[in-house]
Amino acid sequence: DEVGLALVDEAFASLRQMLRDVRRGNPELKGVIRSSVAVLVDHAHRQEAHFRFIARERVGGTIAVRTAIGHGLELFERELATDLARLPRADAWSTDDLRIMANLIVTTMVSTAEAVIDAPPERPDIERQIVHTVEQQLRMIVVGAANWRSRD
Asked: Contact, 82 vs 39, CB < 8 A?
């Protein structure tokens, strides 16, 4: 379990930092989406063994490893919700809605990483389609959120 926990921590820590840097260095939302997806895809390729481990252990691992993975994803969501709160018109969203939007984005990114590492390397067209689809999904989430008004 200690090795597994170290793998989880290592995989999430560097990816969280890279995505945080993308969000802070990119004033345009479309650019943030495209850059974040590019960082995720690159990181999934470079850390494929870690991502395969996380994908497998997220549902089938020991309780300690599943908990660590859940905690890593929760940290992603909290950091993203904090950044989302800084967006224009975010004052129309409740804290719970910010958390839910962050969860939608993180869940979409996790599915994307899993799809990227499962795509056959000899078929770059499949990866291009995965990237196109996730960018569209993320834009849809953001557009929907931009028009969302929280209920009290």
From this structure: no
Task: Specify whether the CB–CB gap between 103 and 44 falls below 8 A.
Answer: no
Task: Pick left, alpha or beta for residue 151 (phi over 0 → left; psi -120 to 50 → alpha; otherwise beta).
Answer: beta
C-alpha dihedral sign at 101, 130, 47, 35: negative
User: For residues 11 and 19, what is the distance between their CA atoms, to the nearest angstrom?
Assistant: 13
**Burial of 49 per CB tally in 10 Å (0-12, 13-18, 19+):** exposed
Closest CA to 37 of 147, 142, 145, 144: 142
Q: CA-to-CA distance for 44 and 47, rounded, in angstroms?
A: 5
- Report the 10 Å Cβ neighbour count for 34: 17
Question: 10-46: per-residue pLDDT in tens?
Answer: 777 777 777 777 777 765 666 788 988 998 999 899 9
Whether the Cβ atoms of residue 84 and residue 31 lie closer than 8 Å to each other: no
Q: Which of 57, 58, 128, 139 is nearest to 105 (CA)?
A: 139
Question: pTM for this one?
Answer: 0.86
